[in-house]
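Module 6 notes. Inverse folding takes a fixed backbone as the condition and produces residue identities as the prediction. Think of it as a translation problem where the source language is geometry and the target language is the twenty amino acids. Below is one complete input and output pair. Work through it position by position during the lab.
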């Protein structure tokens, strides 16, 4: 397993391999950039096929966080951590405390929070060992807590912007949306879309989660391997990454892809594939930045819930600018967003 020669190594400042035999913790913390401030980004708990897959995830996700935080105008750099699930898939408090010790050893250069497989309670356990953690229950009128409803709110604002731009429609009543993955973010997104009058098709490997959105929001359950190809207005990937690739893109019929998952494009070239098919793609790290905006405001302190929601709503106009720039320059939206992010980081 290589690091400096790794395909996804992008000048990352530090990559910390964390092992704690007493608890069984195996984790990787990747700090892509601290140029704009402490590297902020969540912690993922996942059963990886090998250490190499975990490293790839940490490298790609942390670079995405640098871009996400830069475009969201946060005074934070980009980092991400992954905890490799053991064979019994149990995440113990001892593992979370050991992880907290590793985060603390970075003396504030990395700030962690929830990602896939994590919860507010898990962050409370990490917080026993380090103050450099966000996504904790709000205190004293300050904003904070579980970032996923905030992520979903940002994705909802982004879908509105994409629909306005591509379909010239101002409201979402009757809009057809297919949501892949109805976990923390996907569920909250379904709620907002249903309240706006959209009709939903959903798929998730967890049948109970599908039942919940079917019962609560009248969503239609569709097959796991068909959800991306539904004849709808918007595809919203809200599960894991790399779902937009050379196999899936030719089969997508929807005019818009706008969802909450990180690293939706398998490769940068897949952004161009979407563009060439005339599909409007909302770059993932732009549309899904609501959660990190909430975590950053919580970590800095002094923001009300309303101020945070208003800041997240800026995702809509921000995406609109990217869509217009892409149209004017004849470039895919992901390339426009990447360039903007790199310029912001380089300017420091
Ligand atoms: P989650 O673990 O609560 O939900 C993910 C859901 O996807 C689960 O219900 C899971 O069963 C389902 N899933 C997994 N593989 C699937 C497949 N092949 N087909 C269909 N469903 C599948 O995670 P969460 O927090 O909702 O995150 C979802 C995505 O959003 C991830 O990519 C995450 O990195 C990203 N994200 C989450 C943020 C947050 O605030 N939680 C912030 C920004 C991005």
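Target side of the pair, the amino acids:
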């Amino acid at each position: 397993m290589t690091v400096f020669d790794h395909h996804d190594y992008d000048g990352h400042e530090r990559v910390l391999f964390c092992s704690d035999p007493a608890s069984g913790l195996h984790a990787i913390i990747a700090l892509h950039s601290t140029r704009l401030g402490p590297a902020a980004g969540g912690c993922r708990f996942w059963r990886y096929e090998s250490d190499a897959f975990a490293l790839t995830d940490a490298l790609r996700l942390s670079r995405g966080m640098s871009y996400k935080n830069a475009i969201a105008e946060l005074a934070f750099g980009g980092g991400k951590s992954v905890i490799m699930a053991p064979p019994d898939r149990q995440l113990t408090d001892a593992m979370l405390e050991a992880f907290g010790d590793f985060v603390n050893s970075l003396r504030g250069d990395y700030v962690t929070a929830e990602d896939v497989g994590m919860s507010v309670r898990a962050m409370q356990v990490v917080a026993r060992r380090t103050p450099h953690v966000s996504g904790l229950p709000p205190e004293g009128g300050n904003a904070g807590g579980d970032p996923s409803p905030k992520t979903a709110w940002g994705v909802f604002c982004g879908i509105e912007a994409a629909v306005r731009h591509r379909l010239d429609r101002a409201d979402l009543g009757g809009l057809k949306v297919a949501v892949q993955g109805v976990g923390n973010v996907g569920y909250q997104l379904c709620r907002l879309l249903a309240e706006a009058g959209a009709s939903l098709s959903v798929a998730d490997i967890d049948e109970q989660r599908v039942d919940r959105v079917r019962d609560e929001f009248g969503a239609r359950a569709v097959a796991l391997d068909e959800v991306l190809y539904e004849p709808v207005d918007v595809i919203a990937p809200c599960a894991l990454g790399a779902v937009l690739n050379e196999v899936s893109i030719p089969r997508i019929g929807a005019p818009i892809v706008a969802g909450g998952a990180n690293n939706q494009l398998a490769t940068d070239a897949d952004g161009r594939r979407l563009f060439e098919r005339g599909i409007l793609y909302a770059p993932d790290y732009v549309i899904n930045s609501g959660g990190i905006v909430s975590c950053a405001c919580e970590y800095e302190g002094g923001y009300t819930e309303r101020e945070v929601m208003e800041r997240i709503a800026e995702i809509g106009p921000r995406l609109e600018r990217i869509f217009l720039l892409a149209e004017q320059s004849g470039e895919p939206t992901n390339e426009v967003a990447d360039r903007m992010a790199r310029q912001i980081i380089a300017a420091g």
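Reference fact for the lab report: The radius of gyration is 19 Å.
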